[in-house]
Amino acid sequence: MYALNLDIAQFLEHYWQKRPLLIKGGFKDFADPITPEELAGLAMEQEVESRLVTRFDGKWEAEHGPFESYDHLGEENWTILVQACNHWSNEVNELALPFRFIPGWRFDDVMVSYSTPGAGVGPHIDNYDVFITQGIGRRHWRVGEALPLREFAAHAALRHCEPFDAIIDAVLEPGDILYIPPGFPHEGYAIEPAMNYSVGFRAPNACDLLSSFADHLIDNELPTERYGDPDLKPRDRHGEIQPHELHRLRELMQQALDDEALLKEWFGVRITEAKHDMDVAPVEPEYSEEEVQNLLEQGELALKVTGLRSIWFTGDSQTCYIDGEAWNLPAADSAAISLLCDQDEISRDDLSELADQAGFISLLTRLVNRGYWFFD
Q1: What is the Cα 310 distance to its own chain's centre?
Q2: Separation CA 291–CA 295 (nearest Å)
Q3: What burial class does residue 253 get, using C-beta atoms within 10 Å of its C-beta: 0-12 exposed, 13-18 middle, 19+ buried?
Q4: Burial letters 228-248, b for 16+ CB under 10 A, else e
Q5: Whether the Cβ atoms of residue 271 and residue 321 lie closer than 8 Å to each other
Q6: What would the pLDDT profile of 228-285 be if each residue is shown by its tens digit?
Q7: E strand map for the chain
Q8: pLDDT digits (tens, 9 = 90+) for 293-351
């Protein structure tokens, strides 16, 4: 387990979503959870999302994996990036655990990169919060102020921004952490072969949310109220839309959003949908409820698959959302909901806290057979 050297309360008050911060020695005695060779091997797998970014002779190139070989690349100016590396490595997933003071629904993934000397992805602006931990090697980082900057495509798969003045200009060494909020331009270049670990947190915008909510209504054929104007008066100006009509249209859309049950159902499904593949495989032959109960009572741990998204809403301890689907317990049980959504392992001792142990075992068995939880 990595211990984060940070005053969390002070960080949230003064820096989170406000200012970038360099945390020297953020992880003391840091040890890389994955080797460059292992990362390169992951980037060769079909189900793993990866990129290769190069800058040879001043020309930027970017391509998506899987890759077959790296022998032709030489020793400088190229970077391998593996998205959602925590889905495929339990050790990489442990890097996200110290940041659990941030709500789980905001967590995106852990991206890992390996860069040769001189390599980076260029100056750019992200729309999410990120904590970048330096692994082996050293990397020179520059972070600018959140000002309007021109952005352009340096390559079809690579968006850059114009040059900026730095408010952070530092060389990161193993264990150093750089926090960058949305909107702050930044660039980093390896001084020597270097590994970097980016723990990212999503920040959906209103357009994406509204579009997703509308898709949910359509896909599930959910009824919504239709516009009506039984109080219509004769109109002299045929092309005019009057203020009360616009107000009624806004109310019509707002009614759907004001349906709290519908809003929770949509958001629970949307926010837990996996953006990247996970190492999930249904169990064959399936476990019985008795087998799951016996394994736990014998001291076996039930472990959650890394990358699995699971959330619940305050005030509802009977329904949780896992991997884009609603799952229901037979009865409300806050301890059971917390086990499924707040923790990564379930032990024999946890069962004693449950109000309805049999109902929990029944649901857990379904999740184990789906491949979401497993016994080591």
Answers
A1: 12
A2: 6
A3: middle
A4: eeeeeeeeeeeeeeeeeeeee
A5: yes
A6: 999 999 989 999 999 999 999 999 999 989 999 999 999 999 999 998 999 898 999 9
A7: 21-23, 50-56, 59-64, 78-82, 107-115, 129-134, 139-144, 151-155, 158-161, 166-172, 177-180, 186-190, 194-201, 302-304, 310-312, 319-322, 325-328, 345-346, 373-375
A8: 999 999 999 999 999 999 999 999 999 999 999 999 999 999 999 999 999 999 999 99
